[in-house]
Amino acid sequence: MRVPRGLRTRLVVGFVLVTAFGALTTAALTFHQARSAILERVQSSAVHDLRTQIDSLAPDLPSDPAPADLRALTLQLDRAGGSRDWRTAASFQDGPLVVAASAAPALPAQLKGAAAAATTSLVQRFQRDGRPWLAIAVPVRDATRPAARPPLVVFASFSLAAQQRDVDSLVTAARAGALPVVLAAILPALLAAGSVLRPVRRLRSATESMAAGELDTRITVTGDDELADLGRTFNTMAATLQRDTAVLRDMEARARRFAADVSHELRTPLAAMTAVTGLLDEDVAAGRMPPETAEAVGLVADETRRLARLVDDLMEVSRFDAGAAVLTLDEVDLAQLVRKTLALRHWQDRVPVDVPEGLRVRLDPRRMDVILANLVGNALRHGGPAATVRLRARAVPGGVALTVTDDGPGIAADLLPYVFDRFAKGEAARTRSEGSGLGLAIAYENARLHGGTLSAANAPDGGAVFTLTLPWNRP
Prior knowledge:
Its EC number is 2.7.13.3. The protein is α+β, with helices and mostly antiparallel strands. It folds into three domains: 164 residues, Beta-Lactamase (2-Layer Sandwich); 97 residues, Helix Hairpins (Orthogonal Bundle); 142 residues, Heat Shock Protein 90. A five-stranded antiparallel β-sheet has the order 2-1-5-4-3, sandwiched between helices. Helix 1 packs antiparallel against helix 4, helix 5 runs antiparallel to helix 6 and helix 6 runs parallel beside helix 9. The radius of gyration is 52 Å and the shape is rod-shaped. The two termini are 43 Å apart. About 1% of the residues have low confidence.
């Protein structure tokens, strides 16, 4: 059975436990005081009654009473016990106990030993046959020698069963009274838990709303307790978060617009520069330029083409940010698409392909070409000069999985979580690299646009593994 662990349950259980503890503690203290009072009253009353009877009968005793005189005294005392039904005995000058003919009293040895030297009344409670008893020892002074040790000691004992029944009834009443108190505590416990948890539930609801993006969420705060302070702190935090988020979103939007505007403005002059560098490349190829000039022209041409690719990538990223990227779906043969992508970039001899023939998928061919080009190009670029790059595709439940692997050094552990971030480069120590740092980010966005996933990992035996999964049903 599942035990409820909610805060409401814990509060109610805690409240009830505290109430039960208080009720039981009160009952225990009351029982202890009542029991002590009952026994003290019985004890005092018994000593008083026995002393009264002795004072009325002792003057009739001779100064040197015989056993018959003592037996007569105990017989009279037994008859005077009344409802207590005590049994008495007498001892003169530490002599043997003399009792009436009816029965001998039950006396603990400790009391008999202490009574020999006692000058005042002694009492002792003890157990006999599993039941409580009370024993009394009353020294009787000689009126002619009041300073001397009392020569006569009268003993009495009687059962405390009746008092024990009274005590047991107190225990029963305490138990019976504690249960209604505990049950009655449940209602105020529920009310108290509700009053405590109501602002907590409001705070939880407000937190969930903020987590869902509703940053204008606020809660109504009443009172001056700790929960009210928590509510005010939440409202302050929410206001600060809303303000900071608005500022960050505005800055992000401006940065995106700036990148898009700059990329757009650069396209026209870059187109002209690319055309010019193309003509210059022809002159270099024809040998119509000095070697120094040809080298400079080649450098300018390479950098122009690199800048053009960067601008194209920035424009593509801007379309993703603006939500303007759309899919133009077509059913294609994946093996043919892969071979075409590799042939356009002259990679067909460098990349072994393992894609089943006739594996047809519905996707955007242009965007799939971008994904493949970026994954394979990244593997060729970072796998090392002698690295072997392999491309493999297989049908999987629900779609198709395509992997690009290499046997190079792999991806650094600190870079792996950020490999699809924009401008993340594997060769971070170099200030410049051939890639723009946007290729894998664009590939990731294109995979997501198809409703698929793109992940990166390191193979157990070395090298990087990029896995692209595309569902059969497009979003």
